[in-house]
Amino acid sequence: MAASLPQQAVSQPLNTMHPREVALSVESLTDLAVLLEFKEEHAYALMSSGYELHSLKTSSDETLKQIGLPKGVRMKVLKWAQEMSST
Q1: Which of 20, 35, 37, 71 counts the highest number of beta carbons within 10 A?
Q2: Mean pLDDT for the stretch of residues 28-43
Q3: Rounded-to-integer distance, Cα 78 and Cα 61, Å
Q4: CATH number (domain holding residue 33)
Q5: 28: domain range?
Q6: pTM for the whole thing?
Q7: Is 3 contained in some domain?
Q8: What is the pLDDT of residue 20?
Q9: What is the rounded CA–CA span in Å between residue 87 and residue 71?
């Protein structure tokens, strides 16, 4: 996937940021797919599902499974959502 996080959203390299700072830098589904290193087909499934970034914050494993995301990708999204809810 050729997309990358917008520079204005990330003021320092991702590898030097605290995980919570990285999670907060996500502003779109594309940002999330890049951050969590989705394969192209998983990013496409997520983006074509009709879900928006804010709705993923409260999604369940079952919902993500219905979108067609494999277990590893679902766990990454759920971990990101947990980080977001603790802010």
Answers
A1: 35
A2: 86
A3: 7
A4: 1.10.150.50
A5: 18-85
A6: 0.68
A7: no
A8: 57
A9: 25
